[in-house]
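User: I've been trying to design a sequence by hand for this structure and keep getting stuck. Would you show me what you'd pick, starting by listing the structure so we're on the same page?

Assistant: Good idea, let's start from the same input. This is the structure you sent:
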């Protein structure tokens, strides 16, 4: 029986073996590197999401930082030497400065003397001026402007007889049509002084009250 003779196998050149080995090595390396790279990307993305400002995780810290920044700005921006405080406003002047309260008729002015010589003033309006503070918001705004700084005295001046002490805690505008509005029966200087001291969180002896004629008030 005739059996075909097998064709002799040509020897493989060493360079081809080397190329084949290198190709397999690169393929195996790529297969290993790809999952590692994907894992690194996932970890990086999770880390970035956890620490990106503005996320729910960082919201309290951002808010606290904003509050601290606002307080720092309030005390680093120099106050002017002169300011006009109209009804429903709160303003501040630097040590040696002057506050002017124009046309004080049925209003009360509250001037806080800081220990460093600065003045912080509020013009409390019996009836709210559009766009300005009501009488029950004036003391909280004044207290926020003082911001815990040492106070040497508080001077209340104006139409004392027109004011009931409760107007500092509940403005006339807040009463309904059927609710009775408290009406002052006299010049309650002591009641006004206590209301102002309580609203500012200060000791009662620091506050003085003076009934003055209508007109402009200039405090220095």
């Amino acid at each position: 029986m005739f059996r075909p003779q097998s064709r002799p196998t040509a020897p493989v050149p060493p360079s081809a073996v080397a190329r084949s080995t290198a190709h397999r090595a690169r393929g195996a390396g790529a297969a290993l590197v790809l999952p590692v790279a994907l894992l690194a990307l996932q970890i990086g993305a999770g880390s970035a999401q956890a620490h990106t400002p503005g996320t729910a995780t960082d919201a309290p810290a951002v808010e606290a930082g904003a509050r601290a920044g606002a307080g720092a700005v309030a005390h680093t921006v120099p106050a002017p030497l002169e300011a006009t405080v109209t009804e429903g406003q709160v303003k501040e002047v630097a040590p040696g400065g002057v506050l002017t309260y124009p046309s004080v008729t049925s209003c009360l002015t509250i001037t806080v003397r800081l220990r460093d010589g600065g003045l912080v003033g509020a013009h409390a309006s019996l009836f709210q001026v559009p766009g300005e503070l009501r009488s029950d918001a004036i003391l909280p705004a004044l207290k926020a402007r003082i911001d815990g700084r040492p106070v040497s005295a508080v001077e209340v001046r104006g139409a004392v007889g027109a004011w009931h002490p409760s107007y500092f805690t509940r403005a006339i505008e807040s009463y309904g049509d059927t609710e009775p509005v408290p009406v002052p029966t006299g010049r309650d200087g002591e009641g006004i002084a206590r209301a102002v001291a309580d609203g500012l969180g200060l000791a009662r002896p620091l506050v003085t009250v003076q009934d003055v004629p209508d007109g402009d008030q200039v405090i220095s």
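That's my pick for every position. To get oriented when you compare it with your attempt: The first strand starts at residue 82 and ends at 84. Confidence is low (pLDDT under 50) at residues 1-10, 12-73.
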